[in-house]
Amino acid sequence: MKLVVVSAGLSVPSSTRLLGDRLAAAVDRHTPVEVEVVELRDLAVEIAHNFTNGFPGRALSAAQDAVANADGLIVVTPVFSASYSGLFKSFFDVLDKDALEGTPVLIAATGGTARHSLVLEHALRPLFAYLRAVIVPTGVYAASEDWGAEGLDGRIERAAGELAALMTGLSAARPAKDDLEVVPFAQQLAALQPAGPSGV
Questions:
Q1: Is 122 a member of any domain?
Q2: Residue 132: left (phi > 0), alpha (psi -120 to 50), or beta?
Q3: Number of H helices and number of E strands within the chain?
Q4: What 3-state DSSP class applies to 187?
Q5: Rg over CA atoms, the chain
Q6: Is 67 a member of any domain?
């Protein structure tokens, strides 16, 4: 199975990338996966050009294909102004709107203080719910003081186990995206109406 880590870290080395790597290693301990890392820092110029000309460059196109064809995703962003970074959001803005439908996603973030830990719930979870991904129940936030603390390892293991379970359970059950049938709302309502006295 293919696991893709999308990291929006900007520095080298990056705590955001480190968290993504630790999460990926934990998933691999639960179920063997092939890991590919997409560093958004390296795609910043192509993402900007995609907004202005409507076409992805070669590296951005390869990253989009990797994300769209993954069996599972780990997405990690640093917290900027109490939300995900602009680079992180921009990448998912230029991704096809149906690319993540039914894909298991583990959300994670890094920040300087624990005050921003709710970014997982008020920013990342709604974004991936909108993209119709299957979001792992446990998100992982790592503040500066969390590195080396016992609690972080526990959250990483729990979230990784949940992602591994979703990947193994959903990979066989997930329908092909073209096979999803949309039933018109009026037809759904008609099916709910009670039958008349004559049975019609």
A1: yes
A2: left
A3: 8, 7
A4: helix
A5: 19
A6: yes
For residue range 80-117, list pLDDT tens digits in order: 988 999 999 999 999 999 999 999 999 999 998 888 88
Amino acid in position 171: S
Residue 37: inside a domain: yes
Asked if residue 44 belongs to a domain, the reply is: yes
Coil, strand or helix: which one is 178?
helix
Question: 9 in the Ramachandran plot: left (φ > 0), alpha (ψ -120 to 50) or beta?
Answer: beta
* Structural domain boundaries, residue 153: 2-192
- List Cβ neighbours of 38 (8 Å cut-off, separation of 6 or more): 4, 5, 6, 7, 63, 66, 67
Element (H, E) at 80: strand 72-80
pLDDT digits over 38-82, tens only? 999 999 999 999 999 989 999 999 999 999 999 999 999 999 988
Long-range contacts of 175-180 (CB under 8 A, 24+ apart): 175/102, 177/98, 177/101, 177/102, 180/101
Number of domains in the chain: 1
Q: For residue 31, what is the domain's CATH number?
A: 3.40.50.360
196 against 99, higher pLDDT: 99
| Token pair of 174 as six digits | 């997930």
Cβ-based neighbour number of residue 118 at 10 Å: 13
Amino acid at site 13: P
Separation of alpha carbons 20 and 25, rounded Å: 9
pTM of full prediction above 0.90: no
Total number of residues shown for the chain: 200
